[in-house]
Amino acid sequence: MALSRVPGGDNLYVGGIFTLRRRAALENTGITHIVSVLRYDFKDFEDWQKYDHLNIEVDDVEDENLLGEFENSGKFIEEALKSGRDGKVGGVLVHCAMGKSRSVTITIAYLLRQHPHHTVASALELIRESRPMAEPNDGFMAQLELYKEMGCPRNIDAHPKYQRWLYQREVELARAVGMAPERIRFEDEEVQDERPNTDREIELRCRKCRRTLATTPYLITHLPISPKTQTTPNTEPISSLTESLFPAPLHNACTHHFLHPLSWMRPTLEQGLLDGRLECPNTKCNAQIGRYAWQGMKCSCGIWVCPAFSLQKGRVDEIVKRGENRQGQGKDGTKTSGDGSSNDEGRGSIRLPPGMKQNL
């Protein structure tokens, strides 16, 4: 199975490196452009000058960054299929070593880019119709899913989801060698993705001085599982660098609020320590309100969050701005929900990120 045509109207093929030695097959299929997705010296191949060539030097390992190449390769394939060479319709061969993982990943990315109706799974199944061995590694599949989620943008580098993904890789690498990352991404200083409106918006305040510490967009929901429905313990950490999710029904049972790194943590986090205390940013207060740990932290519900930036529920007040049934009175005169968290009546939903404001 040296050369497999991708079903559809394009003259697009997937193969392994030995396909390059089959000059007759390349000529008969009208190949004019070649995308090589591997590290290799191609000087030994004959008639190499006949082809327009794009070389993406990557290894077939899960932590290799292919996502950043999807637009460059997609544009190359698109233009090649339209223009060809010498006035002829173009044909493109995408190959790696075996024609199984790297080349298939690049081909799926092209299909997603050109045909929005495709999902990662449907594009892979299309390729498997002619090349059953097609099987990108798990890391590449995750990158394809993220690419689809991003909307297959023409400017991948500038997309907030891609920037967040790159940062997560930096943190994982630093953590693997037992170090804090050199660069810290403070989420309230970054361009935010559009998030759907939720019925429940909250604000976390220091219980001692009432300083605002975090609001809904910057909270991490780690989805604790009910003991009645949990069959096996969840020992795998979840990343706190991905997007925050909607609050889980059992989140109130946990003793921690997890959140993204925020700019008020800068003096503490830029010390370069792996873990330590989080203190209220109000210099007149400085109360200990939580902890951070780049290597992760286990919540009372049993879920690991990694890296972890945690506020202790006993040291902050949860002010519900919208979407909570109001019962009782809080100690500062605000309404509280049934679990004792606070609720400000008559105030609108929160839109501004947590800054250094002082609550009146």
Question: Could you explain how this protein is built, in words?
Answer:
It contains 7 helices and 19 strands. The protein has helices at about 25-30, 70-85, 100-115, 120-130, 140-150, 160-175, 265-270; strands at about 5, 10-15, 35, 50-55, 90-95, 200-205, 210-215, 220, 240, 255-260, 275-280, 290-295, 295-300, 305, 310, 315-320, 325-330, 335, 340-345. With about 350 residues, it is an alpha/beta fold. The radius of gyration is 26 Å and the shape is elongated. It folds into 2 domains: about 5-150, Alpha-Beta Complex (Protein-Tyrosine Phosphatase, Chain A), CATH 3.90.190; about 190-345, no CATH class. Helix 2 (about 70-85) crosses helix 3, helix 3 crosses helix 4 and helix 3 packs parallel to helix 5. A hairpin with a 5-residue loop joins strand 13 (about 295-300) and strand 14. The strands form 4 sheets. The chain has a 6-stranded mixed beta sheet with strand order 7-6-16-19-18-17, with no helix packed on it. A 5-stranded mixed beta sheet has the order 1-2-5-3-4, with helices on one face. A 5-stranded antiparallel beta sheet has the order 8-10-15-12-11, with no helix packed on it. The chain is about 20% helix and about 20% strand.
Quick recap of the structure?
The protein has helices at residues 23-28, 70-83, 102-114, 120-128, 138-150, 160-176, 266-269, and strands at 3-5, 12-15, 33-36, 52-55, 92-95, 201-206, 212-215, 219-220, 238-239, 256-259, 275-279, 288-293, 297-298, 304-306, 308-312, 316-322, 327-329, 335-336, 342-343. It is built from seven helices and 19 strands. Helix content is 21%, strand content 20%.
